[in-house]
């Protein structure tokens, strides 16, 4: 009988063990089945860097920088294990001893004062479950924790946990927490700093030193005491670290409103070219390299806030600015508005009426390409009617004829329209398409920028690279490369450039546009940078003298950009006063506030094998012609004529003899202020006149005063 009872007891015990083992194995399997590893892939901060490696901005849903467990110092790990789960390396996901201890302390205290969850359970809850407090949720937590222990090593679980937990103030994971509270990487944390961070996750809003430094310090000291009690610190070390101060503020990088427009263009380009959606950028932990010039980006933003650079009484006037590296096409700075907001109206991509900044693109470059005109060709400059279209010069001054150089410098309207009318319209439109401008208009108003839809500042800056980049138009971009969280390149920009203009003609355009800045409509403001460019305005006809759009588009030896001023909607109350002088000054001041090197300020360098363009000859009126008789010369008696020559010694002079109201050419000289008439008759003396001539255009200047010669002058 005793043997039978013993056998029955043995069988029951065996059955219970088998059932227990089965339940355990089933629990592990159920827990493992509930684990979706995709949920362990945590959202990670995407970082934007300049090409020289400086971090410019961060994009995130959760501010997290995932870090390998090997890069976390041991004393940081010790602080979390001592605080959250001292038997972490001994249990299999749950710790019955910790649960019983917590239950006992809760009963003694009469309230819940201690939790019994392991680090693995906390990971299970954070990654896979909600925060509800039902028995079913707790059961799932235990099962998933057991499954995690079965599926991953202790180091992997610890890595997931330390990168997952929330530390307050938007910081997720230990590395972001180290930066948020101490402005350093996790590898630089001291023991007392690690203890402070280990104490925060229990109640981030309660134990943050930025919220309550005293509570944070007390919590930190408790963590240090727990570390000492569990053998991670000596008593002496504990006391030393407990005496340390705690920070009372968090580290926050400066709000970079200056970068908003640039960041939005990065997101747009990532989606269009790399096929990475914005929401994926915010979660994916990418490293994005951009060609931004941080100094210019900040300078342009700061200057956009200063009303002194905008017309007075126009505090609400808007502006847009973009600058490219014209050799690569990289956008180095962009401002979409004076108070641009994320995902707002980016005005560098809004079409506006370009005014006279279109003249170099629509008229003068195609004219040079036709090989029928050169920079000193004479153009008609007079009031003309073209089948009902009658352009006028802004100052109502007309020369009759004007050189191409002067027409660009002075922004002469009539000459531009006349020349545009002489050109092959198909070829001019083809050139505009080549530089990236889709113009459907066919009328002569195109010459003056009168377009039905307009063009954007970014399009104009890109189009002008055809001049600044020696005839090669480059395509703008904002992303150099994108690397994923594993460091693999997932996108790399490719150079996009188009040869649109002969290098000689591009150089002529550069020199002519440089002259606009030196002595034409582009003179307002000062800059040490060599600068070429064109101004432009469009009129708001409802108000006399009002401007709708004001422009400056120009380039240095390295950068090409456009700056627009105006209103999103021009009305009789909101219009621009002051014209293109304001964007011209602001463009130059942005350059002034951008650090330069000798190469950038040394002047435009002509490409090899091109003919340089001589500076324009300026003819000055002569009003001091004087004549006298002299014995010097090959004749017995001669007439010596003298005058003050033009400062430009390239000017030629035609000498005329005046008799009976008519004049006859008797000689020419170059670069001098004197001429000798050989062998005159004392009894038939005549008057004389000098006319200066521009040798570049063969245009004659105004005649000088008429000089008479008397016999008495022989004895002067």
Automatic annotation (TrEMBL):
The keyword Transit peptide does not apply. Residues 320-591 form the Penicillin-binding protein transpeptidase domain. It catalyses: [GlcNAc-(1->4)-Mur2Ac(oyl-L-Ala-gamma-D-Glu-L-Lys-D-Ala-D-Ala)](n)-di-trans,octa-cis-undecaprenyl diphosphate + beta-D-GlcNAc-(1->4)-Mur2Ac(oyl-L-Ala-gamma-D-Glu-L-Lys-D-Ala-D-Ala)-di-trans,octa-cis-undecaprenyl diphosphate = [GlcNAc-(1->4)-Mur2Ac(oyl-L-Ala-gamma-D-Glu-L-Lys-D-Ala-D-Ala)](n+1)-di-trans,octa-cis-undecaprenyl diphosphate + di-trans,octa-cis-undecaprenyl diphosphate + H(+); Preferential cleavage: (Ac)2-L-Lys-D-Ala-|-D-Ala. Also transpeptidation of peptidyl-alanyl moieties that are N-acyl substituents of D-alanine. Keywords: Carboxypeptidase, Cell membrane, Cell shape, Cell wall biogenesis/degradation, Glycosyltransferase, Hydrolase, Membrane, Multifunctional enzyme, Peptidoglycan synthesis, Protease, Transferase, Transmembrane, Transmembrane helix. SUPFAM superfamilies: beta-lactamase/transpeptidase-like, Lysozyme-like. Transmembrane segments: none annotated. The keyword Signal does not apply. Residues 695-716 are annotated as: Disordered. This is PBP1A family penicillin-binding protein. It comes from Aliibacillus thermotolerans. The lineage of its organism: Bacteria, Bacillati, Bacillota, Bacilli, Bacillales.
């Amino acid at each position: 009988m005793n043997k039978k009872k013993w056998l029955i007891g043995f069988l029951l015990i065996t059955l219970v063990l088998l059932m227990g083992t089965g339940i355990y194995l089933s629990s592990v399997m159920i827990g493992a089945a509930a684990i979706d590893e995709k949920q362990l892939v945590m959202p990670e901060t995407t970082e934007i860097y300049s090409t020289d490696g400086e971090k410019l901005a961060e994009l995130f849903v959760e501010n997290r920088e995932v870090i390998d467990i090997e890069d976390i110092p041991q004393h940081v790990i010790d602080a979390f294990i001592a605080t959250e789960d001292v038997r972490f390396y001994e249990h299999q996901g749950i710790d019955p001893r910790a649960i019983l201890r917590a239950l006992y302390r809760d009963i003694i205290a009469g309230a819940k004062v201690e939790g019994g969850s392991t680090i693995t359970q906390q990971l299970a809850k954070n990654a896979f479950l909600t925060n509800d407090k039902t028995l079913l949720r707790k059961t799932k937590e235990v099962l998933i924790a057991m499954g995690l222990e079965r599926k991953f090593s202790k180091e992997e679980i610890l890595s997931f946990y330390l990168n997952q937990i929330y530390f307050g103030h938007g910081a997720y994971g230990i590395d972001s927490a180290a930066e948020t509270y101490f402005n350093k990487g996790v590898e630089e944390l001291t023991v007392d700093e690690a203890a402070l961070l280990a104490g925060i996750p229990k109640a981030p809003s309660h134990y943050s030193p930025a919220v309550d430094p005293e509570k944070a310090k007390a919590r930190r000291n408790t963590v240090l005491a727990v570390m000492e009690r569990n053998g991670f610190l000596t008593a002496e070390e504990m006391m030393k670290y407990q005496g340390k101060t705690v920070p009372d503020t968090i580290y926050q990088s400066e709000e970079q409103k200056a970068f908003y427009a640039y960041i939005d263009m990065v997101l747009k380009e990532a989606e269009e070219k790399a096929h990475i959606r914005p929401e994926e950028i915010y979660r994916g932990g990418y490293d994005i390299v951009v060609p931004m010039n941080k100094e210019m980006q900040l300078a342009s933003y700061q200057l956009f806030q200063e009303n002194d650079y905008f017309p007075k009484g126009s505090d609400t006037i808007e502006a847009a600015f973009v600058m490219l590296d014209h050799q690569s096409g990289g956008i180095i700075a962009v401002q979409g508005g004076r108070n641009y907001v994320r995902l707002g109206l980016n005005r560098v991509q809004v079409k506006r009426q370009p005014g006279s900044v279109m003249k170099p693109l629509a008229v003068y470059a195609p004219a040079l390409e036709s090989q029928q005109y050169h920079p000193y060709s004479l153009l008609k400059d007079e009031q003309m009617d073209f089948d009902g279209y009658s352009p006028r010069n802004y100052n109502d001054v007309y020369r009759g004829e004007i050189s191409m150089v002067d027409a660009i410098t002075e922004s002469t309207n009539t000459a531009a329209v006349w020349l545009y009318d002489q050109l092959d319209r198909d070829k001019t439109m083809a050139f505009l398409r080549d530089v990236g401008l889709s113009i459907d208009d066919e009328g002569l108003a195109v010459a003056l920028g009168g377009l039905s839809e307009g063009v954007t500042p970014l399009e104009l800056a890109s189009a002008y690279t055809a001049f600044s980049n020696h005839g090669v138009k480059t395509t703008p971009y904002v992303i150099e490369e994108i690397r994923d969280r594993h460091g693999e390149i997932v996108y790399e920009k490719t150079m996009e450039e188009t040869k649109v203009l002969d290098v000689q003609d591009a150089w002529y355009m550069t020199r002519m546009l440089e002259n606009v800045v030196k002595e034409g409509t582009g003179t307002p403001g000062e800059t040490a940078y060599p600068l070429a460019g064109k101004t432009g305005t469009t009129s708001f006809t409802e108000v006399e003298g009002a401007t709708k759009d004001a422009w400056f588009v120009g380039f240095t030896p390295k950068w090409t950009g456009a700056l627009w001023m105006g209103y999103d909607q021009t009305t009789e109350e909101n219009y621009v006063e002051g014209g293109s002088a304001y964007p011209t000054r602001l463009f130059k001041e942005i350059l002034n506030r951008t650090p330069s090197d000798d190469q950038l300020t040394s002047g435009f360098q002509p490409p090899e094998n091109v003919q340089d363009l001589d500076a324009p000859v300026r003819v000055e009126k002569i009003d001091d012609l004087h004549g006298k008789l002299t014995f010097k010369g090959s004749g017995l008696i001669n007439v010596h004529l003298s005058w003050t020559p033009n400062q430009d010694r390239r000017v030629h002079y035609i000498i005329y003899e005046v008799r009976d109201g008519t004049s006859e050419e008797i000689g020419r000289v170059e670069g001098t202020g004197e001429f000798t008439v050989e062998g005159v008759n004392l009894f038939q003396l005549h008057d004389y006149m000098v006319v200066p001539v521009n040798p570049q255009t063969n245009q004659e200047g105004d005649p000088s005063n008429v000089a008479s010669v008397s016999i008495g002058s022989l004895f002067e």
